[in-house]
């Protein structure tokens, strides 16, 4: 008999300019979708993006400030976080952090600074100072590095300011990354690529564009990606101001989800697994204001949205057949901006 609890931890990064004090933790029920047992687990400034180590013994958080820093935390037995150390992000307003699959390297994107910093992670979870800083700023364009992901021996970096997604290749000595191509795919003018999702096999990329309110779909061809299409994330006929934020594939990769800040919806696309093309099937009201980061729970049955300006987290049930969302409930929390399962 399986006596394991359906409750799992959900960690929430926030902005701390108001009532929030740092990183919070809920218990999330993977059977009912209920959020409970809210507690403050780590006091830190503006932890606007969080990432686990692969063994889930450590959590890493950016501190999105003008000075810019990155903090490493150890997971205590009670679920609280103990600060290990804090290092310089080497750029203003770090907004994203990712850890590689072996857990020995981190990459941080500095939005205002326009830099991307690489870090070694010690076996005890501590961060070393950055060993490499890529400056994406150019004489004729200002960088706004927004997110990065490790994929096997590559590092992809989305730069909203430079309007491209960069491809770095790990060197033969496994210690350095070198730029292969400025943008893996040609973007429409002033699209503003913010976040992106790759299929598990790395053959398809889906880039959500903050300014254009579109998803750019692309198929891998050598070191580049061939563009497939640009699809609007907004409802037909919507004329208001809106800015895309986050993007995630479902576990089976049959559906793609994106957040619209302004229209205040989650857009749902049905994905053709062979061609990679998308069909928009729903724009679901987030029951809040300014949906920033969102997350699918490990069961794949629920989608949770961090509504930054309305100070709440909305929970949706996912229909496993259609991929569509139905609203369940909402809980209050000051300035939630990142959800980590």
UniProtKB/TrEMBL annotation:
Coiled coil: none
Keyword field: Carbohydrate metabolism, Glucose metabolism
InterPro entries: Cycloisomerase_2 (IPR050282), Haem_d1_sf (IPR011048), Lactonase_7-beta_prop (IPR019405), WD40/YVTN_repeat-like_dom_sf (IPR015943)
Record has Membrane as a keyword: no
Transmembrane segment boundaries: none
Family recorded in the similarity comment: Belongs to the cycloisomerase 2 family.
Name assigned to this protein: Lactonase family protein
Organism (species): Snuella lapsa
Taxonomic lineage of the native organism: Bacteria, Pseudomonadati, Bacteroidota, Flavobacteriia, Flavobacteriales
């Amino acid at each position: 008999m399986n006596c394991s609890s359906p409750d799992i931890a959900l960690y929430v990064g926030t902005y701390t300019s108001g009532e929030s004090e740092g990183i919070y933790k809920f218990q999330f029920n993977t059977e009912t979708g209920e959020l409970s047992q809210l507690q403050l687990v780590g006091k830190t400034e503006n932890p606007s993006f969080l990432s686990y180590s692969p063994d889930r013994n450590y959590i890493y958080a950016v501190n999105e400030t003008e000075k810019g820093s990155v903090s490493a935390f150890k997971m205590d037995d009670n679920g609280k976080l103990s600060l290990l150390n804090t290092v310089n992000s080497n750029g203003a307003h770090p907004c994203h952090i990712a850890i590689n699959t072996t857990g020995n390297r981190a990459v941080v994107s500095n939005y205002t600074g326009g830099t991307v910093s690489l870090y070694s992670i010690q076996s005890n979870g501590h961060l070393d100072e950055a060993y490499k800083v890529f400056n994406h700023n150019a004489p004729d364009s200002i960088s706004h590095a927004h997110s990065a992901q490790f994929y096997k021996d590559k590092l992809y970096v989305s730069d909203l300011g430079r309007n491209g997604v960069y491809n770095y290749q790990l060197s033969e000595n496994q210690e350095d990354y070198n730029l292969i191509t400025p943008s893996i795919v040609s973007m429409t003018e002033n699209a503003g690529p913010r976040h992106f999702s790759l299929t598990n096999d790395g053959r398809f990329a889906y880039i959500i564009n903050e300014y254009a309110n579109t998803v750019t779909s692309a198929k891998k061809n050598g070191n580049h990606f061939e563009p497939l299409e640009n699809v609007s994330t907004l409802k037909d006929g919507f004329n208001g101001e809106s800015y895309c934020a986050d993007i995630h594939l479902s576990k089976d990769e049959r559906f793609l989800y994106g957040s619209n800040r302004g229209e205040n919806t989650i857009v749902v696309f049905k994905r053709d697994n062979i061609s990679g093309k998308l069909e928009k099937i729903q724009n679901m009201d987030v029951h809040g204001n300014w949906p920033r980061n969102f997350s699918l729970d490990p069961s794949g049955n629920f989608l949770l949205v961090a509504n930054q300006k309305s100070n709440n987290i909305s929970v949706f049930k996912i229909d496993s057949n259609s991929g569509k969302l139905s609203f369940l409930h909402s809980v209050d929390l000051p300035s939630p901006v990142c959800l980590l399962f």
